[in-house]
């Protein structure tokens, strides 16, 4: 019912737009009825005629109630289309004559819109083209037929006329059409077909027959038609009839004017058709089996027979599958394909817009980069100018530096010559230093020998000091014994005196020995002084050599004697032993003294 409603709306739209509308595009009160004359208005007439041809009860009270005056706005505030949907289209059952319905709408709109210029087609043919337009037009308003459907229709007409299709001619027309608008209106399509642009060389009758054939197929759902012989059920005689195949029925008439209908063959999914062998002098036979009756048909030739069998089998298959007629299914597929292509085109346009936006962004970025490059180029040119200026300055400076470098080179060559001379002198001084180094080694050997002699004298002095200490201890012992002896008796004193004398003699001998030791010590001291003088002379020689070496740029590091410990001084001069040795000897002397007491 939705498809039927859409088909009805297209024809009604043409009739409705032919009414005299006010500027707002709404039905005025005068269009409902003429108030002065009392005659019904155009909108009332349209509604009444629609109800009549669609077999819907007409309710004029509902029409006037729907468009009643109100205080809030003009008449027809609710609009005509809501009334049409509610009170007419929703009540349509499908039991009406489509041709009569379309002719009524055509009558209301043709006079106002049909071209006044002469056409190669009759008004009846123009009406059929108008109905075909409503079938093939897009489901959007205002109604137009797109170039793809125009091509389909023109191909069907050309095929029906038995002419060849001029694709190149239509391509040129399509290009010209696409540049100006999306498609054609119904009246433009009538003008195109009536102008004979795509039917040159064809007479009016041929064009009319082609339009009628396409009209029958697309509008009246005539799948196939033609004369064949039918065998009667009662008298069993063969009679020629005009057969018309539609999606669910085969009707047969006395002639092709369709005025005297003789019967129908109701088709459903259980029907079948099969070829029969020739019999009773009849050829090209086939049988149509239905639920309650069978029909024997004789075609004019084998080709017609096969075409009818194929057409009926196709119709039965469509009924089993519940599919629409081939031309409607093809139209739906073409629409779906256009919608798909449109969606793809919209997606492509969206992508193109996105790409264009991205391209514009890129262009802006490139423009920014170009400006940056120009700025960079300007900076680079300025820098190049500065660089060239700097290069000139550097070249001038380099020339000056080169001249200066030549002068410096000359000076360096002079200095090299001078340094070569100084190197010879330096090598001479090195040789002298090597000689001095040998002499210094000899002096160091002398100093080493002097130190060894000093050590020998020191050891001798230490031995003499030990002997002196021992003698002193012995003298103290004797002195104590002498004091002890004084305290003894006179007898003992005498004896002791004798002993004392002996001891004094021994003491004198010891004193002599001590004096002898003193002399030996003095001799050792003199030897020590002599060795010391030699050592000082060696040290002076070493110092002088050190000064010479330092004076000659410090090529050789001198070996110096180590530091000396401070010397102890005794009653007889500098001691030949250290303080630690003296402490050790004092401890030994105290130990011996304690033992003797």
Automatic annotation (TrEMBL):
<feature type="domain" description="PH">
    <location>
        <begin position="221"/>
        <end position="317"/>
    </location>
</feature>
<dbReference type="Pfam" id="PF25530">
    <property type="entry name" value="EF-hand_SWAP70_N"/>
</dbReference>
<keyword id="KW-0963">Cytoplasm</keyword>
<keyword id="KW-0597">Phosphoprotein</keyword>
<keyword id="KW-0966">Cell projection</keyword>
<keyword id="KW-0539">Nucleus</keyword>
<dbReference type="GO" id="GO:0005737">
    <property type="term" value="C:cytoplasm"/>
</dbReference>
<dbReference type="InterPro" id="IPR011993">
    <property type="entry name" value="PH-like_dom_sf"/>
</dbReference>
<protein>
    <recommendedName>
        <fullName>Switch-associated protein 70</fullName>
    </recommendedName>
</protein>
<dbReference type="InterPro" id="IPR001849">
    <property type="entry name" value="PH_domain"/>
</dbReference>
<dbReference type="InterPro" id="IPR057836">
    <property type="entry name" value="EF-hand_SWAP70_N"/>
</dbReference>
<feature type="coiled-coil region">
    <location>
        <begin position="327"/>
        <end position="548"/>
    </location>
</feature>
<dbReference type="GO" id="GO:0003677">
    <property type="term" value="F:DNA binding"/>
</dbReference>
<keyword id="KW-0472">Membrane</keyword>
<keyword id="KW-0238">DNA-binding</keyword>
<comment type="function">
    <text>Phosphatidylinositol 3,4,5-trisphosphate-dependent guanine nucleotide exchange factor (GEF) which, independently of RAS, transduces signals from tyrosine kinase receptors to RAC. It also mediates signaling of membrane ruffling. Regulates the actin cytoskeleton as an effector or adapter protein in response to agonist stimulated phosphatidylinositol (3,4)-bisphosphate production and cell protrusion.</text>
</comment>
<comment type="subunit">
    <text>The SWAP complex consists of NPM1, NCL, PARP1 and SWAP70.</text>
</comment>
<dbReference type="Pfam" id="PF00169">
    <property type="entry name" value="PH"/>
</dbReference>
<keyword id="KW-0175">Coiled coil</keyword>
<dbReference type="GO" id="GO:0005886">
    <property type="term" value="C:plasma membrane"/>
</dbReference>
<keyword id="KW-1003">Cell membrane</keyword>
<dbReference type="InterPro" id="IPR057837">
    <property type="entry name" value="PH_SWAP70"/>
</dbReference>
<dbReference type="GO" id="GO:0005634">
    <property type="term" value="C:nucleus"/>
</dbReference>
<dbReference type="GO" id="GO:0030027">
    <property type="term" value="C:lamellipodium"/>
</dbReference>
